[in-house]
TrEMBL record:
GO terms for cellular component: ribosome
EC number: 1.14.11.47
Protein name listed in UniProt: 50S ribosomal protein L16 3-hydroxylase
GO molecular function, one term: metal ion binding
Cofactor entry: Fe(2+)
JmjC domain sequence ranges: 93-222
Ribosomal protein found in the keyword field: yes
SUPFAM superfamilies noted in UniProt: Clavaminate synthase-like
Alphabetical UniProt keywords: Dioxygenase, Iron, Metal-binding, Oxidoreductase, Ribonucleoprotein, Ribosomal protein
Coiled coil (residue ranges): none
PROSITE patterns per the UniProt record, alphabetical: JMJC (PS51184)
Length: 377
């Protein structure tokens, strides 16, 4: 199923990471896979990232979850929003929504945040550091689009909410169920619910900053560097000023650093691992099932499924799964490509060329699970 009335290539050529775009009636007859009660239930779970934002006369109030059922009974009748992060990790139905955006690199995927708002509910004027498709699930929300923002854009002094001091509307859209609004990184936007039961599903795509890329890659280089290799002086002159750092030293340092950077294999592996990394993935990993028991379950015909929220990518040498690089021999490449087209929560079927060792490793990595597993995926 594809977005209706939408030319993906034209969008990529003219709008992607450039400007906000409304895709009207992109999902005709769309029925939101959850309601406010479902979202409130998730917000009460200990391991779920949730918050409530209330607009009052004197500004915005932020409350962080997890919440208790009684917390919702004390909320005002209007002007509040419940936000829950990473709902696609808990709701299989959202895998179908994520599939609508596979014209974009899968490794750019972040998660789906869902918000429920009463009449007037909003989170204030702001901008994000990632690409986002705002899917209207139910009710109505009026979106105002402003200009591009940056590090020097003035913000309110709220200690936890990064809200814009000034907002000038350049575009305005009223979204109804099935409408989608795309907003690129750095573009100011402000959405206000019109009426109750307003549900918005935010499909986010990570856009790491250059600073984050440089910092993460330098950490990777440092972790693999040989501590026995030390700084060495260029040819020195006894007559030189002892306080001078000469151009020859600068050239020597540059050569050392560029040598470390000029490693295509390391760059490729690091980037694939970084872009598929999952927060707290180590908590999922489990090798308590022996290889023999794993093989026995496979022999019984029990299907392996792709974990909700799993992140996959591949290049010519590797399969990247949830922050781990797995060597990809030539005979496995077709299966790797096929695996990276399966949506989360679905059975992976029968990959005839995948070795049992590879499947077992992906199972221990919690990227794959058996459909009768009892752990919370």
């Amino acid at each position: 199923m594809a977005l209706q009335g939408f030319d993906a290539q034209h969008f990529l050529d003219t709008a992607w990471q450039r400007k906000a775009v409304l895709i009207k009636a992109a999902l005709p007859g769309f029925e939101c896979p959850l309601d406010g009660n479902d979202l409130a239930g998730l917000a009460c779970e200990e391991d779920v990232d949730s918050r409530i934002i209330i607009e009052a006369k004197d500004g915005w109030e932020l409350r962080n979850g997890p919440f208790q059922e009684d917390d919702f009974a004390t909320l005002p009748t209007s002007h509040w929003t419940l936000l829950v992060q990473g709902v696609d990790q808990y709701l299989p139905e959202l895998a179908d929504l994520m599939a609508m955006f596979r014209f974009l690199p899968r490794w750019r995927t972040e998660d789906i945040m869902v918000s429920y708002a009463t009449d007037g509910g909003n989170v204030g004027p702001h901008y994000d550091q990632y690409d986002v498709f705002l899917v209207q699930g139910s009710g109505q929300r009026r979106w105002k689009i402003g200009g591009h923002c940056g590090p020097d854009t003035p913000l309110h002094s709220h200690p936890q909410l990064k809200l814009l001091q000034h907002f000038e509307t350049e575009q305005e859209f009223l979204l109804e169920a099935g409408d989608i609004l795309y907003v690129p990184p750095g573009v100011a936007h402000w959405g206000v619910a019109e009426g109750d039961d307003c549900m918005t599903l935010s499909v986010g795509f990570r856009a790491p900053s250059e600073a984050a890329l440089l910092g993460d890659f330098s950490d990777e280089i440092a972790s693999r560097s040989d501590e026995s290799k030390r700084y060495q002086d260029p040819q020195l002159s006894a007559a030189a000023n002892p306080g001078e750092i000469s151009p020859a030293v600068h050239a020597q340092l540059k050569a050392v650093l560029l040598k470390q950077l000029d490693n295509d294999a390391l760059l490729a592996r690091w980037f694939g691992e970084m872009m598929t990394r999952v927060p707290d993935q180590s908590e999922f990993r489990d090798d308590s099932l022996s290889r023999d028991d794993f093989a026995e379950l496979r022999a019984q015909g029990i299907d392996l499924h792709l974990r909700l929220g799993a992140r996959l990518a591949f290049d010519e040498q590797h399969l990247f799964a949830d922050g781990v690089a797995f060597a990809c021999p030539p005979q496995d490449r077709d299966d790797v490509r096929a695996l990276c087209q399966i949506e989360c929560g679905k059975s992976i079927g029968n990959f005839r060329n995948f070795s049992e060792e590879m499947l077992y490793a992906l199972y221990c990595n919690a990227t794959l699970y058996f459909d009768d597993d009892t752990y919370d995926s």
